[in-house]
TrEMBL record:
CDD domains, sorted: E_set_AMPKbeta_like_N
GO cellular component term, pick one: cytoplasm
Family note: Belongs to the 5'-AMP-activated protein kinase beta subunit family.
Domain of life: Eukaryota
Association with the SNF1 complex (ASC) domain residues: 127-216
Pfam families xrefs: AMPK1_CBM, AMPKBI
Identification of the protein by name: Carbohydrate-binding module family 48 protein
Amino acid sequence: MVPNVPTAIQSVGHFGLASDLFGWPETPTLVPVAISWTQGGSIVEVEGSFDNWQSRQALHRSGTREFAIVKMLPPGVYQYKFIVDGEWKYAPDQPAMYDEMGNVNNVLEVQEYIPEILDSLDSFLAPSSPTESYNNILFSPDDFAKDPPACPPHLHLTLLNMPQIPDAPNLLPRPQHVVLNHIYNDKNMTLAGTQVMGTTHRYRSKYVTVILVKPG
């Protein structure tokens, strides 16, 4: 089944001096992007919203099961899909999303490369410390007898520890950014004989929480 034609979300750029004076649209900066397929096959092609799903490009074999291609794309969000030996497929090991027709397509975000200007970073560097301020004194027994630091309080605000809202039990509060990409273990459930672990990730404005439940 041919996937629906999604539209790439292009980022809005600025106009240069010549564009402001003459009204010429600025040519978007192209960024090299590697697209790979690692699920095997004989002939692998890719098609996507890079050109509004108008053409296919063959990937080059780089191993027994690996195929790859490098495309020059302007910044934006694109959907794409692979054609492996004549069949439409998406890569399960790459980010994916559903389109309007319910088809699963891979998705990538191309960001504009901004080179770092090292001279502008000097003001953020800490001043150099004198050599005599360092030593090589060994740790004393008192150093090893100290209690570990307390857990930061914001790490207790995980979705596993948040009580349900009485009026909306299916809704959860928005997670704080400091708790993202951490793995949490519900100690209360562990004592009850069940191990519950969870982690929360964010993609743009969406939050996804994965919870693993297994016997203790």
